[in-house]
Amino acid sequence: DNGGKMKPLRRVVYCATFTAFLWSAPLALAATTQSFVQTTVEDFEEGEASGTLVAPPGQVEAGLQPQRFAADAAFLWASTLSADGKTAYFGSGDPGRVYSVSANGGTPRLVASLPEPWVTAMAAIDTDTLLVATTPGAKLYRVSTKDASAKPKEVAHLDTEHVWALVHDAKTRLTYAATGVTGKVAVIDAQSKVKTLWTADDQHLVSLVPDGTGNLLAGSAEKAILFRVGTNGQARAIADFESQEVRAIVTVGDAIYVAVNSFEAGGEDNQSSNKEKGAAKGIALVTGGSSPAAPGKLPRPGAPKAKGAVYRIEAEGAVESVLTLAQGYFTSLLADKAGNVFASAGSEGKVYRIDPQRNTSLVLDLPERQALTLVAAPGGFLVGSGDTGAVFAAAQSSAGQSSYLSKVFDAGRFAKWGQLRYGAQGAVTLETRS
């Protein structure tokens, strides 16, 4: 490369597996040579993958190909599946809307517009109806997914500021809500009557999922505690992390995976940053507190500064760190039928995979900087993004769609390529430029 001014060295992979690379570059004006070697996961993650995944112990494989569908919103924060699994719904911010998308992907269709600027949680309560939470104000609306002319009906107003997660139990027809600034689990019956099931000793409960045994798993912020909450109102702590929030939870068999984040105090000025970057207006710091935890801030490009980790918790209580982000934070977790867990990041628009053997791979690198919510789809999953709002349908890439662009190898002066060595399986096309 001529001082970094020309296009970067390029390698294109078609349905192949790369295992190692060695590039030798004799300099045109000197007798010395330089080498460029890529063999590890860390080496390959410095490049840009499209329709490929970087897998251990250091190889690039054909992977998932994302297809982008734009939404008229600053970000898509929440998602849920219809009862039949054929339609995905996304809740947006700035403005607060609900969109529907075919589980196979497609242009988002506007289902409902809400008075508040941010949809924070959703749950499908029957074939044609969603329960939708908004903020500020912690209101719940009943939204028809079939009748586009029907206006959302406000059915409850919780005595708190935010609803961060909703879980619907089809058998009992009860819906459970995780709330903040008062961290509690509320229960809403079929007549929309609300009562408090359990109150946590923390400001927010930001994640809530069924545990598969009739109880609930709830994650808190500011203290980052994972609780098991019984439908009888009794709860116990399962794990206490030295972080600030348990943002997302998913179960795989008897194991529990949690996404945990820590945030730096201070950071960018919320109001000025929102004006500069076009984020939602008027709710930059919706909790009104000084906490840097993500629930208290609008998801903005480049902020807040954070560190994230995904932990696996065994049935007997053993806790294992399986994936970490030195810079960035996790936003959502999703498990597939094969036991893989996918984790989205709200900092660089990346989605990672943790396989049943706890090997981790980067499977998606979105053009948007925030991957905020994941929902299952046939053959893959859908991703709701921020900066800007869009839905990405991720499915297995077909022949000719898989490529990998390396980082630039700057030889420092005019140069020509010498030997190239690689290990691969399948048909591979390699391209270089100098």
List the helices and strands and how they pair.
Layout: E1 10-13, E2 17-26, E3 33-38, H1 41-44, E4 48-50, E5 52-55, E6 59-62, E7 64-70, E8 75-81, E9 87-93, E10 97-102, E11 109-113, E12 118-126, E13 129-135, E14 139-144, E15 153-157, E16 162-169, E17 174-180, E18 184-188, E19 194-199, E20 204-210, E21 216-221, E22 225-229, E23 235-240, E24 245-252, E25 255-263, H2 270-277, E26 306-313, E27 319-325, E28 330-335, E29 341-345, E30 350-354, E31 360-365, E32 370-377, E33 380-386, E34 390-396, E35 403-405, E36 420-425, E37 428-431
Antiparallel strand pairs: 1-35, 1-37, 2-3, 2-6, 2-36, 4-35, 5-6, 7-34, 8-9, 9-10, 10-11, 12-13, 13-14, 14-15, 16-17, 17-18, 18-19, 20-21, 21-22, 22-23, 24-25, 25-26, 26-27, 28-29, 29-30, 30-31, 32-33, 33-34
Model description:
- This protein is an all-beta fold.
- It is 3% helix and 53% strand.
- The protein contains two helices and 37 strands.
- The protein has helices at residues 41-44, 270-277, and strands at 10-13, 17-26, 33-38, 48-50, 52-55, 59-62, 64-70, 75-81, 87-93, 97-102, 109-113, 118-126, 129-135, 139-144, 153-157, 162-169, 174-180, 184-188, 194-199, 204-210, 216-221, 225-229, 235-240, 245-252, 255-263, 306-313, 319-325, 330-335, 341-345, 350-354, 360-365, 370-377, 380-386, 390-396, 403-405, 420-425, 428-431.
- Strands 2, 3, 5, 6 and 36 form a five-stranded antiparallel β-sheet that branches.
- A hairpin with a 5-residue loop joins strand 30 (350-354) and strand 31.
- The chain is globular, with a radius of gyration of 23 Å.
- It starts with 9 loop residues before the first strand and ends with a strand.
- 49% of the residues are buried.
- The model is unreliable at 1-25 and 267-302 (pLDDT under 50).
